[in-house]
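F.,

This is the one I mentioned.
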């Protein structure tokens, strides 16, 4: 059997200028890049080439990004996917994570924004591979991955909620998301009585490498209590992400409807 060629990234977009921009940014960091102008052609390429991470546009002719995700699932092709679009809405962001993308980035994006999702995607792929090898006894993994508690709900593998007895909701970042950003240095939180919206950025994480990672809110509502302990002690969120490391307590504004966009954490496994 001939070994397949391997690339770090496959970029799928019907605009060559977007492909060229991402390829230039990723190539400058040493990543190897392949590309396709359509999702249908990309599926053919995947048959013959190994990719560590895929970045694909959503709005494309013939097959869009969501249909591409569904096709990967049907074919049991396990490659982390990041979705991007120039027709950005919070609904689009929520749907992207709900459909299985590990990240979402709106156009236009900066070099820093695209690099942050690439590095997070690469780390996700590494974690996924290690855990699967450990599961099948091929390798003992050093990664301790803590799924969120069964009674919680999550937006993709990014953020979680826990509804308390008073009808308020705790919001936080999943352990898997935190492991993909690595070397956390600083957390930027929103303020008391500010409103967060499901699918919009609710917190920013800065790493030792000066990358900024955006966390998308799992639910809409007004912040009644930010966890200011995280400002002085950001590593608390890594030590205890589901309890003492929560980000906010919020008064939800559309709980019943928005719960339909979340997954039960009882299935929180890679």
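My design for it:
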């Amino acid at each position: 059997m001939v070994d397949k060629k391997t690339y770090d990234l496959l970029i799928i977009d019907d605009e060559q200028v977007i492909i060229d921009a991402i390829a230039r940014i990723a190539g400058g960091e040493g990543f190897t890049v392949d590309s396709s102008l359509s999702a249908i052609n990309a599926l053919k390429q995947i048959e013959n080439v190994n990719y560590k991470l895929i970045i694909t546009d959503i709005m494309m002719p013939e097959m869009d990004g969501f249909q591409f995700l569904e096709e990967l699932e049907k074919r049991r092709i396990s490659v982390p996917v990041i979705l991007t679009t120039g027709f950005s809405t919070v609904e689009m962001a929520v749907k992207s994570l709900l459909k299985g993308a590990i990240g979402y980035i709106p156009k236009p994006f900066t070099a820093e924004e695209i690099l942050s999702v690439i590095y997070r995607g690469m780390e996700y792929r590494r974690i996924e591979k290690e855990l699967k090898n450990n599961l099948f006894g091929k390798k003992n993994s050093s990664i301790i991955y803590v799924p969120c508690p069964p009674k919680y709900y999550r937006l993709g593998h990014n953020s979680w909620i826990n509804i308390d007895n008073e009808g308020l909701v705790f919001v936080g970042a999943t352990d898997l998301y935190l492991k993909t950003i690595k070397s956390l240095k600083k957390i930027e939180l929103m303020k008391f009585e500010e409103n967060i919206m499901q699918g919009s950025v609710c917190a920013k994480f800065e790493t030792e490498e000066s990358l900024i990672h955006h966390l998308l809110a799992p639910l809409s509502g007004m912040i009644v209590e930010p966890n200011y302990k995280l400002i002085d002690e950001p590593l608390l969120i890594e030590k205890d992400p589901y309890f003492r490391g929560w980000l906010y307590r919020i008064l939800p504004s559309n709980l019943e409807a928005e719960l339909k966009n979340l997954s039960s954490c009882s299935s929180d496994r890679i």
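The domain at 153-267 is CATH 2.40.50.100 (OB fold (Dihydrolipoamide Acetyltransferase, E2P)).

Talk soon.
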